[in-house]
């Protein structure tokens, strides 16, 4: 086995400082910020649409859509009832804190309660670049397999909540939820894990309830 | 819509020069090199195992396994009959040409005919970093969806061959192959597209045949 290491500590440190600034700015504005991360095709946008529908009675919702290119997701979440802003990363594989700050400045924070960042579909880079969110939520979909914590450990380590999506497709995949959970617990002892299908709605209630609780708890700290 | 651009042209230019050197070195060694790219969970390792099994009578096969961490894939492909080398990228989201060169130097090229790089699971970064391969092959799996060319256009543009994997799961997903192909053709007019299931073996023959033809054609140019 060989080890091939790239040094990027300095970039990450600078980014962490900027992420603290973003977080402080959002607290001043009373806006709760969720960083949503997953592989391409894990179902981020569908989950976001269903989450917006469940929250929009109680909260004014904004979405910062990060994409390498295209604006199809921004159009989709606007239809669901959120205010969306499309950010093109111009080839970059993740949003960093500075890009996020520039995106937030272009949004009307005085009229929003909750903002979701739909990060670029990628299990590596977004895990390394904190964007100042109050909660980091990752989605893993059943078709991706139960071995992913072994291969993308940082994402599972830094997340505050894991959503296992597309559980309606379990009959056609060899996906062992107990094995996944055991792999996750070696990296992250306490994050809640919710199994759901954004498509059928199964399990959405528990995730939405966790999210609402997190928002209300954070509000008491302001 | 806002545009958030990071400049990384210089890194990419340096990498392109190094990729040319890698390619020249492999031609001297008479080793054909395939860069295999896909999202996490698209089925790269299973496809690789089945491809090794189909090729190993005719070619001596090596695999350079790139992973952020873990060595599970190297063990799997060795069982299938290839010589594997595990490279840990130490957090990096892709292999670049220099990392690849260092990996190749650690392999016994005098006793290999074909080497596959199983790149880090990611549809963004590996597309930007040429590693000097003779063929760039991307896998898209049915569960990821038919809209991926719109969201990860560079990967579809630079690839020489597209494999649509997990077609055995089509009954449970809303995946329109014609729509996918139309989206692909806007970016890449001529790359061959093979629909297959590495799990069931369906469609593997056509892909393996294309690969063998590519190897034999390249040999006539040496």
Helix content of chain A: 40-55%
Strand % of chain A is 15-25%
The pLDDT mean of chain A sits at 92
Q: Secondary-structure element order of chain A, as H and E?
A: EHEHEHEHEHEHHEHEH
The end-to-end span of chain A amounts to 49 Å
Q: What topology does this entry show?
A:
Two copies of one chain form a homodimer.
Chain A lengths: L1 E2 L5 H20 L3 E7 L5 H12 L5 E7 L4 H9 L2 E6 L8 H9 L8 E5 L6 H4 L6 E7 L6 H4 L1 H6 L2 E5 L11 H11 L5 E3 L8 H16 L3
Parallel strand pairs in A: 2-5, 2-6, 3-4, 3-5, 6-7, 7-8
What do you see in this structure?
2 copies of one chain form a homodimer. With 222 residues, chain A is of the alpha/beta class. The first copy, chain A, is 41% helix and 19% strand. Chain A has 9 helices and 8 strands. Chain A has a 7-stranded parallel β-sheet, sandwiched between helices. In chain A, strand 7, helix 8 and strand 8 form a beta-alpha-beta unit. The longest helix of chain A is centred in the N-terminal third of the chain and has 20 residues. Chain A is globular. The first copy, chain A, starts with a strand and ends with a helix. At the A-B interface, strand 1, strand 4, helix 4 and helix 6 of A face strand 1, strand 4, helix 4 and helix 6 of B.
Features:
8 strands; globular; 9 helices; alpha/beta; homodimer; 222 residues
Brief synopsis:
With 222 residues, the first copy, chain A, is of the alpha/beta class. Chain A has helices spanning 9-28, 44-55, 72-80, 97-105, 125-128, 148-151, 153-158, 177-187, 204-219; strands at residues 2-3, 32-38, 61-67, 83-88, 114-118, 135-141, 161-165, 193-195. Chain A is 41% helix and 19% strand.
């Amino acid at each position: 086995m060989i080890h091939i290491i790239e040094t990027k500590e300095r970039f990450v440190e600078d980014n962490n400082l900027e992420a603290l600034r973003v977080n402080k700015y959002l607290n001043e504005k009373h806006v709760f910020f969720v960083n949503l991360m997953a592989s391409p095709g894990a179902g981020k946008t569908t989950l976001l649409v269903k989450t917006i529908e469940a929250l929009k009675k109680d909260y004014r919702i904004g979405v910062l859509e990060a994409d390498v290119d295209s604006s199809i997701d921004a159009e989709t979440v606007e239809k669901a009832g959120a205010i969306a802003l499309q950010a093109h990363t111009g080839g970059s594989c993740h949003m960093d804190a500075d890009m996020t700050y520039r995106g937030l400045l272009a949004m009307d924070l005085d009229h929003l309660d909750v903002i979701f960042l739909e990060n670029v579909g990628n299990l590596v880079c977004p895990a390394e670049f904190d964007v100042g969110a109050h909660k980091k939520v990752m989605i893993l979909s059943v078709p991706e397999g139960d071995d992913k914590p072994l291969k993308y450990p940082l994402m599972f380590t830094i997340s505050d909540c894991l959503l296992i999506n597309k559980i309606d497709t379990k009959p056609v995949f060899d996906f062992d939820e107990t094995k996944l959970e055991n792999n996750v617990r070696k990296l992250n002892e306490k994050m809640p894990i919710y199994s759901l299908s954004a498509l059928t709605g199964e399990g959405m209630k528990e995730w939405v309830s966790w999210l609402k609780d997190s928002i209300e708890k954070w509000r008491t700290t302001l």
